[in-house]
């Protein structure tokens, strides 16, 4: 193999100028990432090319889990099965009750001429990577465009809302957690129905503007209000821990804890977005506004 | 030119590239941060290795490319690792001739400085991008990386040697 020895009359750019130019390129990429579709397209091709590598990287984890699952003792399994069948019975009962209520609700909504919008699910996905970065609030899912996922779909885990899909590649997808500082979620208090907005604030979530004249207590559960096209109504998001009245502002100061497991959850359900309602004509809008 | 340099130049390109792939594979394994925060970035280590032993082939440009791949693979903002790897490789390349003369112990110090540089750039980018500072534990990883350096060098030598002997 012939390579030139290191000398001072080397062809090509000097590495310092190369560093400067490529640094500018990478800063530009950081700016354009998630804002410019061509960058995303290239990124998604690269992600598809890297998928085999990610798949192999996940095999040790799967293998470890498989082994640890198989060596679980018999008694554990029996206890688990007992607990599960109990829970199953309880859930079945609840389901039956919910069915009755759902039916009533459908009838009521039909009476009002509103559409029934149940929660649909476009698929289950496994979280295959949480990345090295402790602060990154993005996860990588093992399914993508092929399974019908779209940018903007909401994702839930077993306890509640976990985030939103922000980038879809053919075989994988990127999930941004609700703690991301760019996330805003329309919520309502499950007990009272008061609506507000929930803001991601980096490591946690924040209820910044909850009016102090409305009722809010510790242990209240916040659920999505369904006032947008993204999150279906009624998904639990967070639980209120403490509520303070602060003199001088018309808002409560609230400490919250998110309900979903974030780093601990392994599977997520992806919910497709609602179709946006047809544009209301201004006439019907004003008619609605006049209605008491 | 020393014999060692010549030896590394005779290593075919595909070996170098598969080394990078293996390192990326290790980096993509979804270890949780809470228990594995001390794991160094293997891609960065292998990049440093080749930047030291084969500066004609692996330089700032290669660092940029690998960085972009790692960004996509770990869902980091595109360009973050590219920038930090470039700075790291540039840092080491400016002193490449001198570092090669040192013993493994002193080399490990240089590697530690380079990895720390990498980590600082990563944290700064994160600070700009997200307005948050990384947890301090991430600065443990460069130490471990530097400790692994003599081992990595030995392993690479063994692998490359065995290849050459078989021919």
TrEMBL record, chain A:
A UniProt-annotated Pfam family: MreC
The segment(s) forming the Rod shape-determining protein MreC beta-barrel core domain are: 127-271
Q: Which Gene3D superfamilies does the UniProt record give? A: Rod shape-determining protein MreC, domain 1, Rod shape-determining protein MreC, domain 2
Q: Which GO terms describe its cellular component?
A: plasma membrane
Keywords (alphabetical) are: Cell shape
> What's an example Gene Ontology biological process for this entry?
regulation of cell shape
Tell me the protein family, please. Answer: Belongs to the MreC family.
Q: What role is this protein assigned?
A: Involved in formation and maintenance of cell shape.
- This one is known as Cell shape-determining protein MreC
Protein's organism: Neisseria zalophi
TrEMBL record, chain B:
Membrane-topology annotation of the record = Multi-pass membrane protein
Indicate yes or no for the key word Cell membrane: yes
The record's Gene Ontology cellular component field reads: plasma membrane
Which GO biological process annotations does it have? regulation of cell shape
The source's superkingdom equals Bacteria
Give the transmembrane ranges. Answer: 20-39, 59-78, 99-124, 136-160
Signal peptide limits: none
Instruction: Tell me which UniProt keywords the record has, alphabetically.
Output: Cell membrane, Cell shape, Membrane, Transmembrane, Transmembrane helix
One Pfam family name is: MreD
Compartments reported by the entry? Cell membrane
Q: Which PANTHER family match?
A: ROD SHAPE-DETERMINING PROTEIN MRED
Per the record, the similarity remark reads: Belongs to the MreD family.
Q: What is this protein called?
A: Rod shape-determining protein MreD
Native species: Neisseria zalophi
| Organism ancestry | Bacteria, Pseudomonadati, Pseudomonadota, Betaproteobacteria, Neisseriales
Q: Which gene is this protein's source?
A: mreD
């Amino acid at each position: 193999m012939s390579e030139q020895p290191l000398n001072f009359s080397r062809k090509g750019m000097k590495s310092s100028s190369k560093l400067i130019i490529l640094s500018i390129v990478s800063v530009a990429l950081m700016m354009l990432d998630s804002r410019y579709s061509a960058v995303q397209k290239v990124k998604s091709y690269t992600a598809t090319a890297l998928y085999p590598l990610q798949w192999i990287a996940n095999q040790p984890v799967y293998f470890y889990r498989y082994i640890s699952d198989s060596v679980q003792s018999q008694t554990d399994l029996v206890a688990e099965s007992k607990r599960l069948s109990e829970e199953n019975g309880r859930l079945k009962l609840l389901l039956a009750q919910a069915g009755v209520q759902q039916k009533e609700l459908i009838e009521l909504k039909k009476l009002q001429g509103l559409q029934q919008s149940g929660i649909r699910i476009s698929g289950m996905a496994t979280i295959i990577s949480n990345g090295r970065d402790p602060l990154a609030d993005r996860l990588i899912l093992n399914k993508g465009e092929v399974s019908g996922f779209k940018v903007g779909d909401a994702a839930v885990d077993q306890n509640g809302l976990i985030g939103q899909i922000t980038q879809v590649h053919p075989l994988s997808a990127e999930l941004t957690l609700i703690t991301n500082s760019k996330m805003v979620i329309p919520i309502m208090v499950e007990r009272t129905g008061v609506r507000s907005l929930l803001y991601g604030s980096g490591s946690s979530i924040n209820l910044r503007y909850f009016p102090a004249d409305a009722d809010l207590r510790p242990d209240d559960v916040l659920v999505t209000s369904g006032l947008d096209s993204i999150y279906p109504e009624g998904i639990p998001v967070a639980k209120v821990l403490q509520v303070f009245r602060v003199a001088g502002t018309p808002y409560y100061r609230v400490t919250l804890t998110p309900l979903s497991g974030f780093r601990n959850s392994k599977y997520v359900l992806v919910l497709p977005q609602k179709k946006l309602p047809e544009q209301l004509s201004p006439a019907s809008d004003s008619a609605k506004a006049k209605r008491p | 030119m020393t014999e060692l340099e010549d030896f590394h130049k005779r290593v075919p390109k595909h070996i170098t590239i598969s080394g990078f792939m293996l390192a990326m594979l290790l980096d993509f394994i979804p270890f949780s941060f809470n228990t594995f925060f001390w794991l160094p970035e293997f891609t960065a280590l292998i990049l440093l290795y080749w930047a030291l032993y084969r500066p004609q082939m692996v330089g700032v440009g290669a660092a940029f490319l690998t960085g972009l791949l790692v960004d996509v693979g770990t869902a980091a903002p595109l360009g973050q690792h590219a920038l930090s790897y470039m700075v790291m490789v540039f840092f080491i390349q400016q002193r490449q001739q001198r570092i090669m003369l040192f013993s493994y112990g002193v080399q490990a110090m240089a590697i530690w400085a380079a990895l720390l540089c990498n980590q600082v750039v990563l944290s700064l980018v994160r600070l700009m991008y997200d307005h948050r500072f990384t947890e301090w534990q991430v600065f443990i990883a460069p130490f471990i990386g530097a400790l692994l350096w003599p081992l990595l060098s030995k392993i690479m030598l063994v692998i490359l040697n065995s290849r050459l002997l078989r021919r």
